[in-house]
Design a protein that fits this description.
Helix content: 40-55%
Structural class: alpha/beta
Number of helices: 15
Number of domains: 2
Largest sheet: 8 strands, parallel
Oligomer: single chain
CATH architecture of the largest domain: Alpha-Beta Barrel
Distance between the termini: 21 Å
Strand order of the largest sheet: 8-6-4-3-2-1-10-9
Length: 389
């Protein structure tokens, strides 16, 4: 492998314990890989060159662990971090796995469930901060319905807002250096999940008491499974100053969450995503929320992890080639040519500007007859990706 595609700490490539630790269980079959301890998974990630490791509270500490067991797990985990040099940039809470959350967590109809979810999240935030996390992600995997007869959506919105406001105040009260990132998904494991897209999450954040400390954690698969252009959602989050974290994987549209190796399905979409992140200077973690194929042993899991990072770096190199390609850039300059004749009409409104614009004459036929050369531009992009340029 080329040294250009060897991951370095400055790339900030991270994986969750639940990703490389996935044992291959699916709805139709049991595990195909023996489980590894959190410390063993950290060492696996150290071998493949990752920068950091992220976790749900119960990925690290089982929900029924005794205090003694908790202390021993943490001791081994800390030692593995120290030995490998990996860091913990992000943490999150599992509010979907235990049967108590079968009707949701913050939006559950049962107030005891909502209260327990807050308690569990506060404890998990403490754990994440203790291990160095600066970003805390919220994925509401059970915050939805199978039948809308069961839950009032306005009540659910209010319950979710109340929970987020409470937890923001908790982090501020504890003086934690922490930002929250909300993760959208349209469906699975619930039939319909509230706030199903990044755009929904951005609108919800604007209603919170502390919107400045809450952003989003968009995931490729969660938007592609609904047929949405993921890069556009990422761009909206970036433009709003809310792209706090990102989950990279791949997905066929119209299917349940597949969590495929990054770039393994839609290479062109992955290219434009990487190009966007690199062009705007996104400085956060590149987190791979994906799983190795069920066919693999742990050597195959390492291949999977290396592949995620390698593909990102190849596409980063391709993005730089795109920006340096004289023909592509000349075509883009032609497409975006501006003689300045319309400049006076744009920007802040004024009555004078409106009067002048209403009086402006436009040759619609001439404008419409201009070929935009997008076919040529797209083929040049394909040529570049396929190594023909």
């Amino acid at each position: 492998m080329s040294d250009n595609y060897t991951p370095q700490p400055e790339h900030k490539f991270t994986f969750g314990l639940w990703t490389v630790g996935n044992t291959g269980r699916d709805p139709f079959g049991g595990p195909v890989r023996e489980p590894k301890s959190p410390a063993e998974l950290v060492r696996l990630l150290g071998e493949v060159g990752a920068y950091g490791v992220n976790f749900h509270d119960n990925d690290l500490i089982p929900i029924d662990a005794t205090p003694t067991e908790r202390d021993q797990i943490l001791k081994e985990f800390r030692k593995a971090l120290s030995d490998t040099g990996l860091v913990v940039p992000m943490a999150t809470t599992n509010l979907f796995g235990d049967p108590v959350f079968k009707d949701g967590a913050f939006t559950a109809n049962d107030p005891k469930v909502r209260a327990y979810a807050l308690q569990k999240t506060m404890n998990a935030i403490d754990l994440g901060v203790e291990l160095g996390a600066k970003i805390y992600v919220f994925w509401g995997g059970r915050e939805g319905t199978e039948t809308d007869a069961s839950k009032n959506p306005v009540d659910a919105i209010k319950r979710n807002r109340e929970a987020m406001n409470f937890l923001c105040e908790y982090a501020l009260d504890k003086k934690y250096d922490l930002k929250f990132a909300l993760e959208a998904k349209p469906n699975e494991p619930r039939a319909d999940i509230y706030n199903p897209t990044t755009g929904h999450m951005l609108a919800f954040i604007a209603t919170l008491d502390h919107p400045e400390m809450v952003g989003v954690n968009p995931e490729v698969a969660h938007e592609h499974m609904a047929g949405i252009n993921f890069m556009h959602g990422v761009a909206q989050a970036w433009e709003a100053g809310k792209l706090f974290h990102i989950d990279l994987n791949d997905q066929y549209p119209g299917r349940y969450d597949q969590d495929l190796r990054f770039g393994s399905r839609d290479l062109k979409a992955a290219f434009f995503l990487v190009k966007f992140l690199e062009d705007v200077g996104y400085a956060g973690s590149r987190h791979f929320d994906a799983h190795a194929y069920r066919t693999e042993d742990y050597e195959g899991v390492k291949d999977f992890a290396r592949g995620c990072m390698r593909t990102y770096l190849i596409l980063k190199e391709k993005a730089a080639q795109f920006s340096a390609d004289e023909e592509i850039q000349a075509l883009l300059a032609e497409i975006n040519a501006d003689d300045g004749s319309m400049a006076t009409y744009f920007g802040k409104y004024s009555a004078e500007k409106a009067i002048a614009l209403k009086a402006q004459s436009f040759d619609r036929a001439a404008i419409a007859n201009r070929g935009l050369k997008y076919e040529r531009l797209d083929q040049l992009t394909i040529d570049l990706l396929l190594g023909a340029r």
